[in-house]
Amino acid sequence: MRSLRxxxxxxxxxxxxxxxxxxxxxxxxxxxxxxxxxxVSFDTPPQVIAGRTMIPVRKVSEALGATVxxxxxxxxxxxxxxxxxxxxxxxxxTAYVNGESATLDVPxxxxxxxxxxxxxxxxxxxxxxxxxxxxxxxVSVSSPGSVITVTNGEGTVEILKLGSQAWEWKSVGDLAKGxxxxxxxxxxxxxxxxx
Length: 195
Fold this sequence. Notes:
Distance between the termini: 81 Å
Radius of gyration: 21 Å
Number of strands: 17
Helix content: 10-25%
């Protein structure tokens, strides 16, 4: 009996530690989210679940200017931005955008006390532009009208509007690394005054 206990206790403890590793790895995924060029901080970090980047619904939605409500009866988050209404329900792959159904690859779920939703779906449902920079593990979310693409004889650049100024960057990777303009790799360079 004593030798069984000596063998069983370490085995059970090892199994518990190994079982906790995936949750810890997901929690420390290192995914950064920039909304209109500003880092979004989360109390429950973004996670990759079934190949989709999941984020707490409130933080990015509010960063885009939306309001977020909760229907406790249906366990649904209702996100409203201007004339767009997005409804997602816990553990359901059916969501609604302005009353029209849409299918989610991964259903909203509670992680760390927060309702996690697929970032790309929520962003695009609110008409935001979503970009991914793999090497820096950064997602960029640009609110509607904040990005202007300009093409001329020299090529194409994107202009990010922040307040009354516009800033140039060459790619999502540049935005993620903070190198916003080829003229100055360490800080944004104003490109135009917006009225």
